[in-house]
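Course assignment 3, question 2. Fill in each field.
Student: A.L.
Task: Predict the tertiary structure for the chain below.
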Amino acid sequence: MAANLKPMLKHALVTALALSLVLTFVSPLLAGAMSVDVTTAKSNETGTGSVLGGEPTRVTWEALVGDGEQVSAVSVKLPEGSVITDESSVKVTVLEGTTRLSPENTVTMNKGDASVDVSFSAPLQPGQRLRLEMYKVSLPNVNGEVFLTGTYTLADGNMLDLAPSPSIEVTHASPAERLSTWLGEQPAVQAWNSVTFLRLFFQPELIVSSIPVVAVGWLISLGLVLVGFPLAIPIGLVAAFMKIARSRILHVLAAIYTGVVRGTPLFLQIYIYFFGLPLLGINVNSYVLGVVDINQYVLAIVVLAVNSGAYLCEIFRAGIQSVPKGQFEASRSLGMTGPQTMFYVIIPQTIRRVIPTMTSEFILLYKDTSLLAAVGVMELMLYSRSIVSLTGNMTPYIVAACFYLIVTLPLIRVVGNLEKRLALADSGGTAPKKKRRKNRRGAFTKMREEIAVSTEQAAEVLQEQERLEAHLDDDSEPADMDQALDELQDGIALDAQITDADERGGSR
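Answer field:
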């Protein structure tokens, strides 16, 4: 048994020696590993908490020195694709509890691999916290999580890998966002923003960044009115037929519908549909900001269609009654029935007459979509209001106004042209021709030329008269005398013609 114990004791001693050696060299690494517990990036997107990739931001990195360690240098490597500037944009802070220390350090930046190296003249002691604030750092322009890695060097020269750090969520920056950032760095834009009024209402970089967001709301608003208005046309047409029908019941029902809808504001009707219907047991799914609920948009379309249908009813009724009654009688005399007369004779003329008014109603309905923002429907106004609430700037409202004008101004011009054309067609006239501007410069030049010719001819006549008078003073033959008299008469007649030409030229 003693013989068996001897090998066992020998094996135990070897194992204990090996374990002691391992603990001697490895225990500092296990128990004293420098831990990274803070890795954050400041939001660089206006009005949100997102960190845009490819845009300058501030990255904060913190690590705690482990037990039994003395750290003489730290190397932090940013994610691949990051961009850093220079050493002056790095702030080094050492904390011991709540006490701020100021150890001598040297910062070196390697722009090639986007790393920051910090060395200390006196090693950091266990329990001390190292904080690096790296300014003007552009993280990779990706969507997803990125991580910071690196190494640290102990006082004895050993280099160890840093523990895994917390991730940073990065959002891909759109071209508009990058353009907005670039504009904010321009001296002219900064001078513009130095004026309070201009900055609050017309901030250039906020205009650029707001356009893509507000454009989404604009498309939604346009879609609501493009679907709701065509639905309102048959509603208004049926109500118009009911109002001009001989049946008193139909007339009363149509009158109640148009009176109630036209007599109450659309804002109130929206509240009744969205909050009153659930009280009647007609439940609509609740709307959560940022989540698309199709039921909300369907209900919004119904509200717009019913409201616009009441106004279209009066438009169609007035258009039908504007058609002369003689056309009804003429159509019936040709053997056409009442419905045929209405759909083949009256309705085409009615539509032609009411097109301008219908276009105006379309413009009003398009603008009224902004009221849906009061019940949480994500449309043009609510998108712009969300940016205003985050930024405290009125510029997104100006952008929203421009999107409204993109639709309303051309339609207003179309309505004006239609009204003019219909007025001319009804009067049997034609479009007035544009007055041609007279070429006054050309007429004046021509007049000057005519006067010059007349003056030259007048000078020749005067010379001829002087020659003839001198000839008369001489002792000439009678034949020569008669010829001279004839020439003088011709000269006088020519002089009269020149005088008339001068007078005509002056009158011009």
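Instructor remarks: The first strand starts at residue 35 and ends at 41. The radius of gyration is 46 Å.
Grade: pending
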